[in-house]
UniProtKB/TrEMBL annotation, chain A:
InterPro entries: AAA+_ATPase (IPR003593), ABC_carbohydrate_import_ATPase (IPR050107), ABC_transporter-like_ATP-bd (IPR003439), P-loop_NTPase (IPR027417). Residues 6-243 form the ABC transporter domain. It comes from Actinokineospora auranticolor. The keyword Isomerase does not apply. Keywords: ATP-binding, Nucleotide-binding. The keyword Iron does not apply. It comes from the Bacteria. This is D-xylose transport system ATP-binding protein. CDD domains: ABC_Carb_Monos_I.
UniProtKB/TrEMBL annotation, chain B:
This is Putative NBD/HSP70 family sugar kinase. PANTHER family: BIFUNCTIONAL UDP-N-ACETYLGLUCOSAMINE 2-EPIMERASE_N-ACETYLMANNOSAMINE KINASE, ROK (REPRESSOR, ORF, KINASE) FAMILY. GO terms for molecular function: kinase activity. The lineage of its organism: Bacteria, Bacillati, Actinomycetota, Actinomycetes, Pseudonocardiales. The keyword Transferase applies.
């Protein structure tokens, strides 16, 4: 088994009287894509937000590299090396790729930004992910396609040496071809040794990139298995009924 | 002397020059008319006639260069137009297929990929999915594919793309070139993965400009591609390159190829998993993550020894000026690469005679085979576009 980077044990979370997560166990492994599936309201986004420091878990343990940690806010998550990419990506349209990748973390001192070093780092990062579809790192983000924008958002996590990347439906707003491009990148992200969590509603996507599938049903983790061990139909059953039927 | 156009008919000479000019733009990128004339040894009026013709057909575009050098009227910059010729590149691996549309000049215009599990790895399934993927990518781009190139980890007959054996894929006797040509409606050429990666590194990567180079990659299998005297070393029918099946350890494990202690069994992906105590089916990314840990070099001591032992022989046999380590080898800790380089410098007498053989890590990374497949597809296109 590959090394567990990030682990959630018996995590529960309620919003007022509504219990959204019930004793959830979840593990993110280095170099693997874990697909997180479940119906609307199953708790997928809440789970990711607990790992990203947006919500605090009510009970349960979070471990990073085997050590118990607290993730009280997004800064703490970033310090540990946990990055989140949302479907409505947080890129600034009026800035170029380099500026977006360094947004909030510009290099240089005082008034002087080291533009050359930032440009070089951005270029190296895109090259390390074999992103060859973006011609110039000085292209304004507004001119990029949806797939390219998502590519920049994902590449940002590599630039900042993140070790775990949580992708919340990164392809929800994209067309077929752009989706494929982003999923291909997701695969390469894991190939670099990062732990990747992919929330997706599209099972074809899940089967084309994931190593492991974790299914949430009404706030409970009903399965976490290598994707090679389950069929398409079994995953559908897990999502819709919380268990697998007796299919051959 | 061969290669000149003396004594040939004018239209042949023009075609030859046109192909040479396109190849120059395709491989090395935009260039001014003046520089083209210098590099190709053609006079400026010939270049003008060729470029005007190509511009009229929309294959190149001309622009005033942004950076000026010297005095006088600036020479126009000639840029290849990616959409003038789009090829399909396919990289078939043991666990995954990657595809890309690549335009003239080498720009990647779109890409796709999927995992191979169970039946998805059968030739028919792969061909079907490649066709479907190509349809999606070309529709998005609004352009058709004029040629296809495919990289396969196995023994391939270059003439017609017949895959004799791709043991790690479980393929034998697959007429892949023929089947893809029919299914895609465009000529498909197939090549050995390491040979194509060597081609890509030679044209666009770490071995650019080198006359003699060896590319070595570790995937499930270990393969090598050899550039000799500036062009690919092919061997009879193109079968050269099974460097991974060079026996390094007669006391080693049996290999599926029928031999024992092949280099592949000592330095392949599975050997790395064993050295790192990872289970046999752990994903590639887990191996990479483990190689990044500070403890990795110490655990790779035996692996490093076998890598060096094989490389000494490779350098002695091919006398390359440089060796490019590709694929999973790109994730090796720097100290391991340095140790292997030192061992080669010390133990290979050819390396000593050459004053040292350079050992470099691939700059194209996991894309070397895919980009090599694209170049394979471009070979016939540059003559006809």
């Amino acid at each position: 088994m590959s090394a567990v980077l990030l682990e959630l044990e018996k995590a529960s979370k309620s919003f007022g009287p509504v219990r959204v997560l019930h004793d959830v166990d979840f593990a993110v492994r280095a170099g693997e894509v874990t697909a997180l599936v479940g119906d609307n309201g199953a708790g997928k986004s809440t789970l990711v937000k607990c790992l990203a420091g947006i919500h605090a878990v009510d009970s349960g343990t979070i471990r990073f590299d085997g050590e118990p940690v607290a993730i009280p806010d997004p800064r703490a998550a970033a310090r540990l090396g946990i990055e989140v990419v949302y479907q409505d990506l947080a890129l600034a349209d009026n800035l170029d790729i380099v500026q977006n990748m360094f947004l909030g973390r510009e290099r240089g001192s005082g008034w002087l930004l080291d533009e050359a070093a930032m440009e070089e780092a951005a270029r190296e990062t895109l090259a390390s992910l074999s992103v060859r579809t973006v011609r110039s790192v000085r292209t304004p983000v507004a001119q990029l396609s949806g797939g390219q924008r998502q590519t920049v958002a994902i590449a940002k996590s590599v630039l900042w040496r993140s070790r775990v990347v949580l992708l919340d439906e990164p392809t929800a707003a994209l067309g077929v071809a752009q989706t494929r491009q982003v999923l291909d990148l997701v695969r390469r992200l894991a190939g670099q040794g990062l732990g990747v969590v992919l929330i997706s509603h599209n099972l074809a996507d899940v089967f084309s990139v994931a190593d492991r599938v974790a299914a949430l049903y009404l706030g409970r983790m009903v399965a976490q298995v290598p994707i090679a061990d389950v069929t398409h139909a079994q995953v559908v059953d897990l999502i819709t009924a919380g268990r697998t039927g007796e299919r051959p | 002397m061969t290669g000149t156009t003396a004594g040939t008919r004018p239209d042949e000479a023009r075609r030859h020059n046109r192909t040479a000019l396109l190849r120059r733009l395709h491989v090395d990128g935009p260039c001014t008319r003046a520089a083209l004339a210098g590099e190709l040894g053609l006079n400026r009026s010939t270049i003008k006639a060729l470029v005007d013709g190509l511009a009229a057909s929309g294959i190149v575009q001309e622009r005033v260069p942004m950076v000026r050098t010297g005095a006088g009227r600036p020479s126009l910059l000639v840029l290849p137009q990616p959409l003038a010729a789009v090829v399909l590149a396919v990289d078939i691996r043991v666990d995954r297929v990657s595809t890309a549309l690549v335009g003239l000049g080498g720009q990647v215009l779109g890409r796709d990929g999927w995992n191979l599990r169970g039946r998805a790895g059968e030739p028919t399934e792969v061909v079907t999915r490649v066709v479907e993927s190509t349809r999606v990518l070309t529709e998005e781009l609004g352009s058709r594919v004029v040629s296809a190139g495919v990289s396969v980890p196995g023994v391939v007959r270059r003439l017609d793309g017949y895959v004799h054996e791709a043991p790690n894929l479980g393929w034998t006797d697959v007429p892949l070139g023929h089947r893809l040509t029919t299914a895609l409606g465009a000529p498909a050429r197939v090549g050995n993965d390491a040979e194509l990666a060597a081609l890509a590194e030679h044209l666009r990567g770490a071995a650019r400009g080198a006359r003699d180079a060896v590319y070595l990659s570790a995937d499930i299998g270990v393969g090598g591609g050899v550039i000799s005297g500036g062009s690919a070393l092919r061997g009879t029918a193109g079968y050269v390159g099974e460097l991974g099946h060079m026996v390094v350890n007669p006391a080693g494990a049996a290999c599926y190829c029928g031999s024992r202690g092949c280099w592949e069994t000592e330095v392949g992906e599975q050997a790395l998993r064993r050295a790192l105590d990872l289970p046999a089916h752990s994903p590639r990314g887990a191996v990479v993550a483990e190689l990044r840990l500070p403890a990795a070099p110490a655990r790779l001591a035996e692996f490093t020894g076998w890598l060096a032992a094989g490389l000494v022989t490779v350098v002695n046999v091919f006398a390359p000026e440089l060796v490019v380590l590709g694929d999973l080898f790109t994730a090796l800790p720097r100290s391991v690469v340095a140790e292997v380089a030192a061992a080669v410098a010390e133990r290979s007498l050819v390396s000593r005679a050459l004053g040292g053989t350079d050992l470099r890590v691939s700059t194209l990374g996991a894309d070397a085979k895919l980009l090599g497949a694209a170049e394979l597809a471009f070979e016939p296109v540059l003559d006809t576009v």
